[in-house]
Design brief:
About 10% of the residues lie in helices and about 45% in strands. With about 190 residues, the protein is mainly beta. A hairpin with a 2-residue loop joins β7 (about 115-120) and β8 (about 125-130).
């Protein structure tokens, strides 16, 4: 789930931080730049683990800051395929997780939740997947989307519609609860 990733970056330290220890200033700048950000095809960056190598620092003409090439390791959230995770249901919609649900399942339009129709000897029971509940799922796929800013295309430049651009998540996990033991934690624990 959490991995150490070796990375290299050039870190700019402004002159007002020269009185601090170099490692402290670099650690702060790296965490400002990477913490809680998704790096394409790497994962969600959590925090700096350690600095493994510092190369020479340079000061460029017209810029009083130092620029140092840094080799470091960063803690990254990147679960492997088939890993079991526990999360929380953020929301439900008809387009939701229906392909990966326990079967038979249906979407309750009135409640706006997914319902697993669980069959027992006593009959059928509806088990609801309410927003905010904890859920255990298996990671079956992941998707990275490059969300780097782009310039307007020629079609967009001539278009006068003011529709805001659709935001996409830069990193998405696809989970499955289609096997016993997966699903809402309350389904499998006794009270």
């Amino acid at each position: 789930m959490f991995v150490l990733v070796e990375m290299v970056d050039t870190v700019r330290i402004p002159p007002w931080q020269f009185e601090r220890k170099l490692n402290d200033s670099i650690a702060e700048e790296l965490n400002k730049k990477l913490a809680n950000k998704v790096v394409y095809n790497v994962g969600l960056c959590i925090c700096l683990f350690d600095i493994t190598k510092l190369e020479d620092a340079y000061v460029f003409p017209g810029d009083g800051a130092s620029h140092t090439k840094v080799h470091f390791r960063y803690v990254v959230f990147h679960p492997f395929l088939d890993e079991i995770l526990i999360g929380q249901i953020k929301g439900c919609s008809p387009e939701g997780v229906h392909e990966s649900l326990q079967q038979p399942a249906k979407f309750d339009e009135a409640e706006q939740v997914w319902v697993w129709e669980y069959e027992t000897e006593e009959g059928a029971h509806d088990l609801y997947m309410d927003t905010g509940e904890e859920i255990r799922f298996r990671v079956v796929d992941e998707s990275f989307v490059d969300t780097s800013p782009t310039g307007p295309s020629s079609a967009e430049a001539t278009s006068s519609s003011e529709e805001p651009p659709k935001k996409e998540a830069p990193y998405t996990l696809v989970g499955s609860i289609s096997e016993p033991g997966l699903g809402l934690l309350s389904w499998w624990t006794s009270n």
